[in-house]
Amino acid sequence: MLIPDGGFVSGALFIKPGVHLHLAQGAVLRCSTQMENFPPRRTRIEGTSMAVEPWSQYTDLKG
Predict the structure, then answer these.
(1) How far is CA 27 from the centre of its chain?
(2) Taking 80 as the threshold, does the pLDDT of residue 19 lie above it?
(3) Residue ranges covered by each domain of the chain
(4) DSSP letters along the chain, please?
């Protein structure tokens, strides 16, 4: 997958095995600030299947 020159905003990226992400010179990929762009993902941690919301541990931080 090639991100062309320019600025782009993205939510979660789910890249399949064998797919490579390349950014062209001048390409800028920024993270979306909208939490709905980062859905929970099913995963296994220590043999236990669960839905993980990786951002949730950071939403209540005080600066």
Answers:
(1) 17
(2) yes
(3) 2-58
(4) -EEPSEEEEE----PPTT---EE-TTEEEEE-S-GGGS--EEEEETTEEEEE-TTGGGTT---
Tokens matching residue 47: 């043999």
pTM to 2 decimals?
0.56
d(CA 58, CA 63) in angstroms, rounded, equals 11
- Considering Cα of 42, then 33, then 36, then 29, what sign does the dihedral take? negative
Please give the C-alpha separations between residue 7 and each of 21, 23, 27, 41, 54, in angstroms, as whole numbers: 15, 11, 6, 26, 25
Higher pLDDT, 32 or 5: 5
Phi, psi for 36 (deg, rounded to 5): -65, -10
